[in-house]
Amino acid sequence: MVDASTFTHLISACSFLRSREYGRKIHNHILKSNLLPDMILENHIVNMYGKCGSTNDAWKVFDNMPERNVVTWTSLIAGYSQNGRDIEALKFYVQMQQSGFTPDHFTFGSVIKACSSIADAGLGGQLHGQVIKSEFGSHLIAQNALIAMYTKFALINEACDVFLCIKEKDLISWSSMISGFSKLGYEFEALNCFKKMVSQGSYIPNEFIFGSVFSACGSLVQPEYGRQIHAISIKYGFEGDAFAGCSLTDMYAKCGFWYSAKTSFQLIENPDIVSWNAVISGFAYGGDANQAMSLFSRMRRFATSAPDDITVRSLLCGFTEPCTLSQGKQVHSYIIKIGLNLDIPVSNTLLTMYANCSGYIDAYKMFDEIRSNADLVSWNAIITTCMHQNLVTEVFSLFKMMLLLHGRPDYITLSNILGACGKVSSLGMGEQVYCCAMKNGLDNDIMVMNGLIDMYVKCGSIERARMLFDCTKNTDVISWSSLIMGYAQFGYGEEALSLFKTMKDHGIKPNQVTFVGVLTACSHVGLVEEGMELFESMEQESGVGPTREHFSCVVDLLARAGRIEEAEAFIGRMGIYEPDIVMWKTLLAACRNRGNLEVGKRAAENILRIDPFNSTAHVLLCGIYASAGEWSDVAALRSSMREKGVRKVPGRSWIEIEDRIHVFSAEDGLHFERGKIFEVVEELWLQILDYGFIPFLD
């Protein structure tokens, strides 16, 4: 007769093989026999059902057990945790303690994993406290589980604290820490940790560690580091490994080493779908859409697995220019053919592809096809597309539709809508978005708060912008720069410079936008020497290299102060940039105000060399000639404008009434209420004349 020990070994074999079918047959045989199973055998049965994915069977066995010990509870908790039933695993953990059992290191390992899966950092901290208080606080299984949990919560400092407390680190400890560093953006720390592990010589890195360090090198775009680690991986025999090979291929592709990427991929023995997806993604994100497309074709012909949703989404991300639209449409046809067009994430990627390669119309057609099933990403994608195309009315319309059909916006949605409000100075709509942010608990999100500050600035409400800035916790460089820029643009130069000083006192490092605002402030206040000193020192002191915008600000700074010739000379010695229209227009406008005919003519000539039909240059030059009394030149220039067909671009204005934006331009005859508008204008004109106003006709 078969005894309990034999059945225990048979059940253990089923657990190892993950064979629920044989495990259930053996369990049924035990139930039919006269054998009375002991606690050890029943613990193995609970463990077998958990590992084979049958948690309900594990529970039935557990529930019928006359006696239980810590192994029984741990087996049940582990089974539920391994099969994604994390809440129940945590409940069993509480019941276990209420039943008087003390958890061991295996229990802690399983329950900490369950806590990681539900992303409850507070509960994780409590479990960590229990581990420390228990006799298993220094056991590797519990400590490694804590490292994995903290890295999953993005609490890298806490993970480091646990890692540093481990006296005898094993391969899992090193792997968890290196992987955590790499995934959370601490690439240099991941490489340093790998270096320490290799230098100690206690363990040979596995394929997962090599995968993490290759990913770190790819993120840093450091091919030299990657090559050295590649050599180490060859030394330890991982050259053809699928996992390490995927990351290696991706690293070389991100660094632009296309030949090395292809070679690394070809060395992978029997690449699976993950390997194909990695290499296609690497080339697509690396900017080589043609090579990504070629690999996609090879995958369809030779791979053992057909392309999936991740494959086509990765491939579509490589099509970002109009010249790749044809390839994008080919992939779209394939997606329809295999039925992935019903997959919303795939459709969202298609929408983004059309937005990048074609424009709003094709992107909107794509959105219209998925509107009934659109998720938050879909709405954000089409709203962002409209923002990039300056289709503000469509942005507002889509936002209202989204609130009706989808309901809850996120910080990306509100940032876009606030940007649209700023573009058309729609303070009323901006205030409504602020209320929406508070209603949805987003009024503490720094991106939303920065969007609100920028919106108030662009709507001319600098006082409200300052009030909101003062109420914002954890302001960043964008918050400070937006307010400094607002003060500068509205002529509050001294306030802008004072805020810049306060910003530096708070240890906030200025960026390019900050210096544009500060230089603009110096220009408005007339602090020429201070502005020049800031410009000369910004790269050395703050690490911000001068851009075209900064050069334009310096031209404006000198020109406003009447130092026209100095401004012209500054443009001539820029060196790293060719002077653009903005710089010459700035100089030309200053010449118009100062009556400097000679420099003005040269500025206008440079503008017309870049853009022969630029109306602003013609109009400003006419003004300079008229101020100097050169009427023959005025006539000649106006005649030239007529011959070229150059017309002054009409000014535009707009007003918001009851959530509708009305746009007007000079000599506008298209507004649907133009009759009433002209009647009011005529009435106002008559009233002006009655008050004795004499119009000045230039």
Q: Can you give the helix content as a percent range? A: over 70%
Low-confidence stretches: none
Distance between the termini: 117 Å
The 3D shape can be described as elongated
Question: What's the overall average pLDDT, rounded?
Answer: 89
The fraction of residues in strands falls at under 5%
Number of strands: 2
Gyration radius over CA: 34 Å
> Order of strands across the biggest sheet?
1-2
Protein structure class: mainly alpha
The biggest sheet amounts to:
2 strands, antiparallel
Counted by DSSP, the helix tally is 39
Structure commentary:
The protein is an all-alpha fold and 698 residues long. 72% of the residues lie in helices and 2% in strands. The protein has 39 helices and two strands. A two-stranded antiparallel sheet has the order 1-2. It is elongated and about 120 Å long.
State the main characteristics.
single chain; 698 residues; mainly alpha; two-stranded antiparallel sheet; 39 helices; 2 strands; 72% helix
Write a brief caption for the model.
The protein is an all-alpha fold and 698 residues long. The chain is 72% helix and 2% strand.
What's the SSE blueprint?
Blueprint: H1 4-17, H2 20-32, H3 39-51, H4 55-63, H5 70-82, H6 86-98, H7 105-117, H8 121-133, H9 140-152, H10 156-165, H11 171-183, H12 187-200, H13 207-220, H14 223-235, H15 242-254, H16 258-266, H17 273-286, H18 289-302, H19 309-316, H20 325-338, H21 344-357, H22 360-370, H23 376-388, H24 392-405, H25 411-423, H26 427-439, H27 446-458, H28 462-471, H29 477-489, H30 493-505, H31 512-525, H32 528-542, H33 548-560, H34 564-572, H35 581-594, H36 597-610, H37 615-627, H38 631-644, E1 652-657, E2 660-665, H39 674-690
Antiparallel strand pairs: 1-2
